[in-house]
Design a protein that fits this description.
The protein has no helices and nine strands. The strands form two sheets. Strands 3, 6, 7, 8 and 9 form a five-stranded antiparallel β-sheet that branches. The chain has strands spanning 2-7, 13-21, 28-32, 45-46, 51-59, 63-70, 73-75, 82-86, 91-97. The relative contact order is 0.26. By secondary structure, it is mostly beta strands.
Length: 98
Amino acid sequence: MSIKKQFIKSKPVCKVTFTIDAKDATSASVVGDFNNWNQSEGELSKLKNGTFKGVFELNKDGMYEFKYIVDGVYVNDPEADYFIWNEFANAENGVLEL
């Protein structure tokens, strides 16, 4: 799993690339505050090497809770900036700070 942040000088956004290695999975999405936890809006594309990848433009100076959904199972990214307990989910979510 990896998270790559690319800040755009001409816009108040950051291009964030989410990559997850899930060779045996059939589907993967990233869900979080930035897409209202909507699985279809966070759908990742499966590459030939078996990883899933997606690029999203997120507003700078934001803090976003997020998780991956891999074949229906919620998964945290160990490369998140940090983790925070979420009472609604009754679990930890990864946090992305921009």
